[in-house]
């Protein structure tokens, strides 16, 4: 069966930029456009030329893309011709192959927001679309508030949308602008416009996620006949975001009936870059990746429960809806108090520790994990601490060094300029190869400001580890999370430290204590021990 073409329209650089807190630079826009082009979307909406300097600059030096670069704007304003509307002129002057303009299709908005008659609005839509078409560009019309309009005055809404089609719009895009439509509204809306004379092959769908239905609404629109789907990477967008293309693309490619019926410009090979694309966007925006994101989240294929891990080891399809590799993701089997021996053996295997089924060490490790989690530890994220614990139980964790004692002080005092400043200082005594050393460190950052007691402690701890010095020199602490939790009956502090080294490895460790500094210290020691064992620094250390 030949597949029908379904077009993907990305608006990360336009509606995505309407996300609170998101502001792309011109260079970042170029980087995102390149990523989208490599991924295989059909249209890249680059922004609104003339609306702000960044968008104008982006179009002045527009990237050469296989995808159709599209400039966004609005229909001409009343009282002037399309040719004489300066806002529309700036959009046209960007010189893109495709131009998308938003126009009102809800009678209430025409009257309340534009303050013009319903007829005048339809004339403005027709004249604006015709102006784009006459200039030889592909015209797209974003039918704003289409689904709300259908409820208020269906005849008018359909007439406004149809006017754009009749004026030559290649696509009439039905927008759930306020994000309140539900799948049955969207199905009915697409069908109504098809019945009104706009073929599905000219209908697009643009949804917002205000009821968490943006992806479902897009899928329903396709099932009802729409052939263009709009969305953004990682679901960026105004308010709660737009339909998430990072979810929609794999769903359309891998799930029935869409997979058999349609093809998009995203090849199976490009689909394997999806996780990378999603992460790269987070990096550009300095956002923490959403762990539970569908398909691309770090937890999307994490099998925590013992029953799941046991079945996964026999056949991954028992608890996975797709093969994670299809979207560039990977299966993980974290350790926690939900785990059984199957999780454990799988996890140990991934660390290069093959332990036979039934080995008594497995039960000991599980008991220790469950006991410690009851006391406040959490190993499902702190996998490096789990490895240290497992190695101890298996007798393969070297005693690299022994901490004899440590002390941390925090002082607040006036500096030479009579400003109040804080200063943290740590003293650590460690024994390496029978030799005791005392190290002292302050916590001053590059700008001379206090980086806090944990920073001082980590510097003192790593200052003189004898022959292990070269292995710890490239450790960087990248994140530090503190949580007050209940360890048994007492409230305790759990600290998770994320570390990174020069080889690009990242790892997380956990410490628990009634005292935040002590909990941090435990996590720091685990971080160093994990790094030493992974570097193979144990030669000569006591096993
Ligand atoms: C649903 C969407 O998300 S559409 C995309 C929305 N995106 C943006 O608004 C981001 C970019 N926007 C901007 O930078 C600015 O709003 C600009 C440059 C476009 C316009 O700025 P200003 O001229 O200062 O107008 P302002 O933003 O205050 O108001 C918008 C004007 O456009 C009018 N307008 C709104 N929609 C349309 C439309 N589809 N067609 C014609 N005029 C419209 C409004 O009635 C209002 O006119 P008024 O000032 O006479 O009341
Ligand atoms: C055009 C647009 O972004 C909307 O109506 O949501």
Automatic annotation (TrEMBL):
InterPro entries on file: 2-isopropylmalate_synth_dimer, AIPM/Hcit_synth_CS, Aldolase_TIM, Citramal_synthase, LeuA/HCS_post-cat, LeuA_allosteric_dom_sf, PYR_CT
EC number of the protein: 2.3.3.21
Gene Ontology biological process terms, A to Z: isoleucine biosynthetic process; L-leucine biosynthetic process
Protein's pathway: Amino-acid biosynthesis; L-isoleucine biosynthesis; 2-oxobutanoate from pyruvate: step 1/3
Pfam families associated with the record: HCS_D2, HMGL-like, LeuA_dimer
UniProt keyword terms in alphabetical order: Amino-acid biosynthesis, Branched-chain amino acid biosynthesis, Isoleucine biosynthesis, Transferase
Domain of life: Bacteria
GO molecular function, one term: (R)-citramalate synthase activity
Pyruvate carboxyltransferase domain mapped to chain residues: 6-272
Catalyzed reaction equations: pyruvate + acetyl-CoA + H2O = (3R)-citramalate + CoA + H(+)
Record family assignment: Belongs to the alpha-IPM synthase/homocitrate synthase family.
This protein's name: Citramalate synthase
């Amino acid at each position: 069966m030949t597949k029908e073409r379904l077009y993907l329209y990305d608006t990360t650089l336009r509606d995505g930029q309407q996300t609170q807190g998101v502001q792309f630079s011109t260079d970042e826009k170029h980087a995102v456009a390149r990523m989208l082009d490599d991924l295989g979307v059909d249209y890249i909406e680059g922004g609104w030329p003339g609306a702000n300097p960044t968008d104008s600059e982006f179009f002045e030096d527009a990237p050469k893309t296989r995808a159709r670069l599209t400039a966004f704007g609005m229909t001409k304003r009343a009282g002037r011709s399309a040719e004489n509307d300066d806002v529309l002129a700036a959009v046209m002057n960007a010189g893109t192959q495709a131009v998308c303009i938003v126009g009102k299709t809800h009678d209430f908005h025409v009257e309340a927001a534009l303050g013009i008659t319903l007829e005048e609005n339809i004339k403005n839509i027709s004249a604006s679309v015709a102006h784009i078409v006459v200039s030889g560009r592909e015209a797209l019309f974003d039918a704003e508030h289409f689904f709300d309009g259908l409820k208020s005055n269906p005849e008018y809404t359909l007439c406004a949308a149809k006017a754009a089609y009749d004026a030559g719009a290649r696509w009439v895009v039905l927008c759930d602008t306020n994000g309140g439509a539900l799948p049955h509204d969207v199905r009915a809306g697409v069908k109504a416009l098809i019945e009104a004379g706009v073929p599905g092959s000219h209908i697009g769908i643009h949804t917002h996620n205000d009821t968490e239905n943006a992806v479902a609404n897009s899928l329903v629109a396709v099932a009802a006949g729409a052939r263009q789907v709009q969305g953004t990477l990682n679901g960026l967008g105004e308010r709660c975001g737009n339909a998430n293309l990072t979810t929609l693309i794999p769903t359309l490619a891998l799930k029935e009936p869409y997979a058999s019926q349609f093809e998009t410009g995203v090849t199976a090979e490009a689909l394997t870059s999806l996780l990378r694309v999603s992460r790269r966007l987070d990096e550009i925006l300095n956002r923490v990746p959403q762990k539970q994101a569908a398909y691309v989240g770090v937890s999307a294929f994490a099998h925590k429960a013992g029953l799941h891990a046991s079945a996964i080891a026999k056949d991954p399809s028992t608890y996975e809806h797709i093969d994670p590799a299809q979207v560039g993701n990977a299966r993980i089997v974290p350790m926690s108090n939900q785990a059984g021996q199957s999780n454990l053996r799988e996890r140990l295997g991934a660390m290069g520790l093959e332990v036979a089924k039934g080995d008594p060490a497995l039960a000991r490790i599980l008991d220790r994990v469950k006991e410690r989690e009851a006391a406040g530890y959490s190993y499902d994220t702190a996998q490096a601490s789990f490895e240290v614990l497992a190695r101890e139980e298996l007798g393969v964790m070297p005693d690299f060094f022994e901490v004899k004692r440590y002390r941390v002080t925090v002082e607040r005092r006036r500096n030479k300029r009579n400003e109040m400043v804080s200063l943290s200082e740590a003293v650590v005594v460690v024994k390496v190869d029978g030799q005791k050393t005392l190290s002292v460190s302050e916590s001053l950052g590059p700008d001379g400001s206090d980086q806090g007691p944990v920073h001082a402690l980590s510097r003192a701890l790593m200052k003189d580890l004898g022959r292990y010095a070269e292995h710890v020199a490239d450790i960087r602490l990248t994140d530090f999370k503190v949580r007050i939790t209940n360890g048994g009956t007492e409230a305790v502090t759990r600290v998770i430290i994320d570390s990174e080294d020069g080889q690009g490895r990242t790892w997380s460790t956990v410490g628990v204590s009634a005292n935040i500094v002590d909990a941090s210290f435990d996590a720091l020691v685990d971080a160093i021990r994990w790094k030493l064992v992974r570097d193979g620094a144990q030669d000569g250390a006591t096993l």
